[in-house]
Amino acid sequence: MDAQKVMKEGLLEKRSNGLLQLWKKKRCVLTEDGLRLYEWKRSGSGASGSGSKAKELRFERMATVDCVEYKRGLVYFTVVMAGGKEIDFRCQQEGTAWNAEIALALVRFKNLLAVQTGRTRHLSHLGSTGEGETPESW
Questions:
Q1: Model-level pTM greater than 0.85?
Q2: Hey, is 21 helix, strand or coil?
Q3: What CA–CA distance (Å, rounded) separates 74 from 76?
């Protein structure tokens, strides 16, 4: 994901897995391959996190973006991974919400993958059925 185009960058809150399930701020970067989550720390110059290690939620392992709920100016949503693991997020409702951006990017990724898979199958099918045939034998 290093050279991928950044589609959206900003703050999201992720619910922790612990017993208390606290909401923790994350600096997030959405790219063509997935979502990177960085620790969010307030410093003298604002939010930082670019130097910290990112947790990556790659689209190839994501199943869907689900469970959208609107409460008190916040959007609550869930990213469901291929193995069934659910990761809860919330963000401000203003502007284009993160859940919509992530869902659209996931659809683009899955569509591109389907086109590439279909093209590969089509080309392999053409290669296996067209062997040994010449235009004269048609």
A1: no
A2: coil
A3: 6
Is 45 inside any structural domain?
Answer: yes
User: What residue numbers bound the domain in which 46 lies?
Assistant: 6-124
- Measured between alpha carbons, how far apart are the two ends of the chain, in Å? 48
Given this model, what pLDDT does residue 96 score?
75
Distance in angstroms (rounded) separating the CA atoms of residues 9 and 94 = 15
Q: Which residues on adjacent β-strands are paired with residue 48?
A: 41
Query: What pLDDT is attached to residue 128?
Result: 55
| Domain presence at residue 133 | no
Average pLDDT over residues 68-81: 93
Amino acid occupying residue 127: G
Q: Which residues are CB-neighbours of 52 under 8 A, at least 6 positions away?
A: 38, 39, 41
pLDDT score at 24 = 95
- Domains of the chain: total: 1
What pLDDT sits at residue 48?
47
CATH of the domain at 31: 2.30.29.30
